[in-house]
């Protein structure tokens, strides 16, 4: 079963990180990722730019409406995701706990993947 | 970095947050400034002994509030009964214990402080100067340099601005939606100057000044959240991100300035560039051009060029032309001339800037650019005179070192570095 680990955090906090702190967190996350990559369990991973760089297409009307900013104003923002192949929810939670140990703060939503199209991946 | 530097840096970095909270508390610039000064003095005594606080801004706010209360108490013995509002403010403040102050409150406080500084009773230049002094805590000298005026003139401007704000009884609540939009332009201008203050630096101060650039970027993102559909705020945010992305490439190991042409583009921060380019794209969709968007588009062309040789100077020249029409200024013309020297010829560029001598005679970049054009035209002796003027006006030792290298290369013919240009606001 594939799971998406969806990352939520207050971007005002993460954007205020110094470059040194940011680099240190990314290096630690990189080590966790590498371990799971070696086991062939880790799929695509993405970190997103702040929601201020986002644009939203509201398609509940015709023609769809383009809006500046994220889909929803929330206290914590969707900042990135990991795709991981795990046999059980417990395993997926274990992976999320490993990430959390080196990057505390915010939340991970563990969401099972319904359909995955790896051949569509961009470089 | 020594301990003193760290404390000074921490206090400076915490200033906008702390001042904003203290201003909300005391509703008076002078009282807030005094409270902040007192808190800073206590920090200088306490932090070396007790170690840095977990949250420097929260520490300064708590100590500042208490220091301010002491002052109000002393004054109240000499004055008639305080107003009801003053009493309730006092009891509120006294009732507070050391609490976790929400990051979001900080930001809202800063925004409120910025808007208060842009009071309609103040001319735009005074608003900006006051905000730089009060919010960012820049020295009068630093502000004067950013404004191309003398220190004495700037001192006077700030004193006047403070008097005017006091006389105008500035409301200490955030303005309403319409009023806020009207003030947005003044706040944006102030943020850009704040960014430039951090950006105009040499390698020794780069670390200490980087927080100014970072604060400017944070304030841009904050404004974007509050005004998500304003293309000029997107443009401003993009501009500061695209410029700050080059920070790591701007100085070499010896601290010498590395111009755009020689910068190692692998050192540019790709994430900041991606964010800046995304914001330029978002802004251009609105088809409501403005000066920040034009400048951001210029910075985007530099960022998109994978080598200096691939830079689209013709497009940059057009964008500077557009900027000149929107916002005529001798400095913009100077920048367009630099683009012209690349896309057409140094002779045309030189002809463009000669009429600017009266306005920009005291400006480092003017003489640096003029020297470079003359040098390219083989007029070495005139170039040397222009470079000497530039050195006399250099803002940082690194700038002077760079110009000296230019002079030295004048006496080495067939020099490959003949296309060196001095740093310009659009350059390094």
Write the layout of secondary structure elements.
The complex is a heterodimer of chains A (123) and B (428).
Chain A: E1 2-9, H1 11-15, H2 19-38, E2 42-47, E3 55-58, E4 65-68, E5 77-85, H3 89-102, E6 107-112
Antiparallel strand pairs in A: 1-5, 1-6, 2-5, 3-4
Helix pairs in contact in A: 2-3
Chain B: H1 3-26, H2 29-50, H3 56-78, H4 84-95, H5 103-117, H6 124-136, H7 140-147, H8 151-167, H9 177-199, H10 203-226, H11 231-244, H12 270-285, H13 291-304, H14 313-326, H15 330-343, H16 346-353, H17 357-360, H18 364-376, H19 380-393, H20 397-410
Helix pairs in contact in B: 1-2, 1-3, 1-5, 2-3, 5-6, 6-8, 6-9, 7-8, 9-10, 9-11, 10-11, 11-12, 11-13, 12-13, 13-14, 14-15, 15-16, 16-18, 18-19, 19-20
Descriptive overview:
- The complex is a heterodimer of chains A (123) and B (428).
- With 123 residues, chain A is α+β, with helices and mostly antiparallel strands.
- Chain A has a single domain (2-48, 74-116), classed as Alpha-Beta Plaits, CATH 3.30.70.1060.
- Chain A is built from three helices and six strands; from the N terminus they run βααββββαβ.
- Chain A has helices spanning 11-15, 19-38, 89-102, and strands at 2-9, 42-47, 55-58, 65-68, 77-85, 107-112.
- Chain A has a four-stranded antiparallel sheet.
- In chain A, strand 3 and strand 4 (65-68) form a beta hairpin.
- With 428 residues, chain B is mostly helical.
- Chain B has three domains: 3-222, no CATH class; 229-311, no CATH class; 324-428, Alpha Horseshoe (Serine Threonine Protein Phosphatase 5, Tetratricopeptide repeat).
- In chain B, 71% of the residues lie in helices and 0% in strands.
- Chain B has helices at 3-26, 29-50, 56-78, 84-95, 103-117, 124-136, 140-147, 151-167, 177-199, 203-226, 231-244, 270-285, 291-304, 313-326, 330-343, 346-353, 357-360, 364-376, 380-393, 397-410.
- In chain B, helix 14 runs antiparallel to helix 15 and helix 16 runs antiparallel to helix 18 (364-376).
- The longest helix of chain B has 24 residues, at 3-26.
- The two termini of chain B are 26 Å apart.
- In chain B, 43% of the residues are buried.
- The chains are: A alpha+beta (123), B mainly alpha (428).
- Chain A binds chain B through residues 10, 12-13, 15-16, 49-53, 55, 66-69, and chain B through 103-104, 107, 218, 221-222, 224-225, 228-229, 234, 237, 271, 274-275, 278-279, 282, 285.
């Amino acid at each position: 079963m594939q799971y998406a680990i969806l990352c939520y955090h207050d971007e005002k906090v993460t954007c205020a990180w110094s470059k040194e702190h940011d680099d240190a967190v990314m290096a630690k996350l990189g080590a966790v990722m590498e371990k799971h990559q070696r086991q062939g369990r880790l799929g695509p991973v993405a970190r997103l730019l702040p929601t201020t760089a986002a644009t939203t297409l509201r398609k509940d009307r015709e023609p769809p409406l383009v809006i500046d900013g994220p889909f929803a104003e929330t206290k914590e923002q969707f900042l990135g995701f990991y795709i991981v192949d795990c046999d059980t929810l417990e395993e997926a939670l274990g992976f999320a706990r490993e990430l959390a140990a080196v990057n505390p703060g915010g939340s991970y939503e563990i969401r099972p993947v319904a359909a995955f199209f790896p051949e569509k991946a961009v470089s | 970095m020594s301990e003193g530097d760290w404390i000074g840096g921490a206090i400076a970095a915490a200033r906008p947050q702390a001042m904003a909270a203290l201003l909300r508390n005391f509703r008076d610039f002078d009282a807030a400034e005094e409270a902040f000064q007192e808190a800073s003095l206590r920090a200088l005594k306490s932090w070396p002994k007790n170690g840095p606080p977990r949250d420097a801004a929260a520490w300064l706010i708590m100590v500042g509030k208490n220091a301010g209360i002491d002052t109000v108490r002393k004054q109240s013995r000499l004055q008639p009964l305080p107003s009801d509002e003053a009493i309730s403010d006092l009891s509120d403040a006294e009732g507070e214990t050391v609490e976790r102050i929400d990051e979001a409150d900080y930001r809202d406080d800063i925004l409120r402080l910025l808007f208060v500084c842009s009071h309609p009773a103040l001319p735009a230049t005074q608003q900006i100067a006051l905000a730089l002094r009060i919010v960012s805590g820049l020295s009068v000298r630093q502000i004067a340099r950013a404004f191309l005026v003398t220190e004495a003139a700037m001192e006077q401007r700030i004193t006047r601005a403070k008097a005017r704000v006091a006389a105008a009884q500035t409301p200490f609540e955030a303005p309403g939606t319409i009023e806020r939009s009207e003030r947005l332009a003044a706040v944006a201008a102030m943020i850009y100057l704040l960014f430039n203050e951090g950006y105009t630096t040499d390698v020794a101060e780069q670390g200490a000044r980087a927080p100014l650039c970072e604060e400017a970027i944070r304030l841009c993102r904050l404004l974007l959240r509050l005004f998500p559909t304003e293309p000029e705020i997107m443009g401003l945010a993009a501009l500061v991100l695209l410029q700050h992305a080059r920070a790591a490439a701007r100085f070499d190991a010896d601290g010498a300035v590395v111009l755009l042409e020689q910068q190692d583009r692998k050192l540019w921060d790709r994430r900041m560039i991606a964010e800046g380019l995304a914001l330029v794209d978002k802004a251009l969709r609105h088809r409501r051009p403005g000066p920040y968007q034009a400048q951001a588009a210029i910075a985007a062309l530099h960022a998109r060029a994978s080598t200096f040789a691939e830079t689209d100077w013709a497009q940059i020249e057009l964008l500077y032309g557009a900027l000149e029409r929107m916002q005529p200024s001798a400095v913009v013309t100077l920048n367009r001339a630099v683009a012209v020297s690349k896309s057409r010829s140094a002779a045309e560029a030189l002809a463009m800037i000669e009429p600017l001598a009266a306005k920009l005679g005291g400006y480092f970049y003017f003489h640096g650019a003029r020297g470079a054009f003359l040098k390219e035209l083989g007029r070495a002796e005139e170039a040397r005179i222009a470079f000497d003027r530039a050195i006399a006006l250099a803002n940082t030792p690194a700038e002077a070192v760079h110009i000296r290298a230019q002079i030295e290369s004048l006496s080495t013919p067939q020099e490959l570095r003949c296309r060196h240009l001095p740093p310009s606001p659009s350059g390094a």
